[in-house]
Amino acid sequence: MADQPDIPTVIAARAGDPAAVDRLVAGYLPLVYTIVGRALEGHADVDDVVQDVMLRVLRNLGDLREPESFRSWLVAITVRQVRERYRSRRGAPEGLVHEDVRDPGADFTDLAITRLELSGQRRETAEATRWLDEDNRELLSLWWLEASGELTRDEIVAATDVSRQHAAVRIQRMKAQLETARVVVRALAAQPSCPDLRLLTVPWDGRPGPLWRKRIARHTRDCRVCAPAWDGLVAAERLLAGLALVPIPASLAGQVVVTKAATGGAAQLVAKIGFSLSRKVLTAALSTTTVAGGAAAVVVYRQADPPPAPAAVVAAPPPTSRPAQTASPSAPSSRTPSAFKTTPSAPAAPSARTSEKKGVSVWKFTGLKAALADVGAGWYYNWAPHNDDVPGPAGVEFVPMIWGKANVTDGTLAQAEREGDVLLGFNEPDLAGQANMSVDDALAAWPRLASTEMRLGSPAVAFGADKSGGWLERFMAGASARGLRVDFITLHWYGSDFSDAAVGQFLGYVDAVHRKYGKPIWVTEYGLMNFSGTPKYPTAAQEVAFIKGSTKGLESRSYVERYAWFALPAVGDSRDYGLYLDGDSPTAAGKAYRAAG
Predict the structure, then answer these.
(1) In Å, how far are 365, 375, 392, 550 from 371, measured between CA atoms?
(2) Coiled coil located at which positions (predicted)?
(3) Helix, strand and coil in the chain, % to nearest 5
(4) What is the structure's pLDDT at 364?
(5) Residue ranges, the chain, pLDDT below 70
(6) Of 243, 426, 494, 542, which is most buried by a Cβ count within 10 Å?
């Protein structure tokens, strides 16, 4: 581990000791800069995010209950600020934010290569990080530090706020994408270069991205000249082991100046942190919080700026009780790990539990985007190859689908490729009212879906996925015989037994399908519904109990990667089983699903 401030330093800083605050910030700046720099890949926002992290740490240090957990708490704050920056960049108007704006000389990969003197496969691996998706760059920034001995797996789990098993699955998927990206880097750098690859990349603008990563990787698998790029790849863990933190630039190596004066029991804390990588004007930020039971004012300003006059910092009187936290545009939206929660003086309304597993199926209705944000879903889908009609909020992943035989066209496949790296297969091909495809039809069309190089989910049968001789078993046997790729199994399930036994019936089905095929599971539709008898729908209490039990079981199963309730809208015909009447009006089922995760 790097030489970082010890627990007594954290305790002293929490009590308002200026020298301890100085050591704490200086000691942890390299760790924060490494996480943010690699996650944002040298974007001009890096220094702003680092500043936001350190400001939040100073602002909330007085509420940290367990000093020995300081580093985990710091990393969790850092990850949330990175995610918040992703959301703000995606949601900002075109005229205000430009894609991939980088500060020349601040490119993080170049800094890592130069300052750590990387060469060979270590250099290739660093360059490959430019080709990762945003969420994988965030995860890589943590896993890289685990592989180099700077963080532990428990700290990664706390920072990402997922189970240990889910973190392991995400890391494996990230590493697979990193390996593909390493091959892309090799193929592009090969001398002599491949003529076919040169021809393929004529339209490419030279900027790394998921579409070109997939196209170039697909070429390397089929090209006799480029195929050797896959050979001799040393495991990334071995390449990264023992690497130090990337030294922060001199312009980021700010200093902390802390002054403390007793004024009616209050403390004044002025923290000066130098951040001058960005050419944007940094407006002084003044906020008030509690440190060691007193009020403190924290001012952050550019190193080149003169400090404000003492009169500009006014100590607030000591509060009689700790105020409840209020949301702000820059406040983190994900959950705070329980070890670091603050205790408001009045109970706040329960917030949504965000889970990368938890999703919803959707169609257009009033308040769609707000409901998607409120329910805490990590992903959603609409049975289509694009989400043009149902755009979701930033930070909630859309997963495309090729619905049926008629949708297997160059146009729909291209739309799906632009949406991401995961593709759902045909929708209920075993039902005449849905995709209505024979096994042979599905197998004949499957190579076109696989050609996208996206991670590919099986056709989602309406029932009987665990049965011998069923539609799905025949499809999977045919795919195996033809060498066709199926990366995970998608399932639908609806139960007509509304009693307490429903949870066990549902999870038993999921378990049986996993045992049969040994692949990860996505439950893309599920709920309680009696299609042929009465009552057709459960009571609200029965539905809430089922949601609580089923989501707990799905979250605890490491092989279940995603699940989605049918459906988000509770309007018209779906009012009896949907989750939201509009953007901020969840049903009883919606409140239960919002709390799941």
Answers:
(1) 10, 6, 9, 21
(2) none
(3) 45, 10, 45
(4) 92
(5) 1-3, 41-45, 86-119, 148, 240-351
(6) 426
Phi-psi region of 486 (alpha: psi -120 to 50; beta: other; left: phi over 0): beta
Residue type, position 529, single letter: M
Selection from 418, 377, 378, 423 nearest residue 399 by Cα: 423
Phi, psi of 187 (to 5 degrees): -65, -40
Q: What is the pLDDT of residues 111-133, one digit of tens each?
A: 555 545 566 787 788 788 888 88
Task: Look up residue 347 and give its two tokens.
Answer: 């109970």
Please choose, from the candidates 501, 488, 482, the residue with its C-alpha nearest in 3D space to the C-alpha of residue 542: 501
DSSP code string of 2-56: -----HHHHHHHHTT-HHHHHHHHHHHHHHHHHHHHHHHTTBTTHHHHHHHHHHH
Pairing of strands 397-398, 377-381: parallel
Give helix then strand counts, H and E, for the chain: 19, 10
Residue length, the chain? 597
- CA–CA distance, 143 with 224 (Å, rounded to integer): 33
Two structure tokens written together for 82:
């990175």
Element (H, E) at 493: strand 489-495
Query: In the numeric block, which tokens belong to residue 1?
Result: 């581990």
Q: What is the pLDDT of residues 308-321, one digit of tens each?
A: 333 333 333 333 33
* Alpha helix stretches (DSSP H) within 190-300: 195-200, 210-222, 236-240
Contact indicator for 519, 551 with CB cutoff of 8 Å: no
Task: Provide the pLDDT for residue 471.
Answer: 97
Taking the C-alpha atoms of residue 512 and residue 443, their distance in angstroms, rounded to an integer, is: 24
SS3 432: coil
Contact 218, 485 (CB under 8 A): no
CA distance 140 to 39: 7
DSSP 385: S
Burial of 203 (0-12, 13-18, 19+ CB in 10 A): exposed
CA distance 405 to 71: 52
pTM score: 0.48
Residues 273 and 197: their CA atoms lie apart, in Å, by: 47
Angle between the N-to-C axes of helices 108-115 and 18-40, in degrees from 0 to 180, rounded to the nearest 10 = 110
- Structural domains in the chain, sorted by start: 7-240 (no CATH), 355-594 (3.20.20.80)
Joined together, the tokens standing for residue 114 give: 């130069």
Hey, which residues does 288 pair with through a beta bridge? 297
Query: Nearest-5° angle of CA 91, CA 96, CA 101?
Result: 90
The amino acid at residue 282 is: L
- Beta-bridged to residue 569, according to DSSP, are 580
Whether residue 459 is preceded by a cis peptide bond, meaning omega within 30 degrees of 0, is no
- DSSP β-ladder status, 489-495 and 455-457: unpaired
For residue 291, the surrounding DSSP H or E stretch is strand 285-291
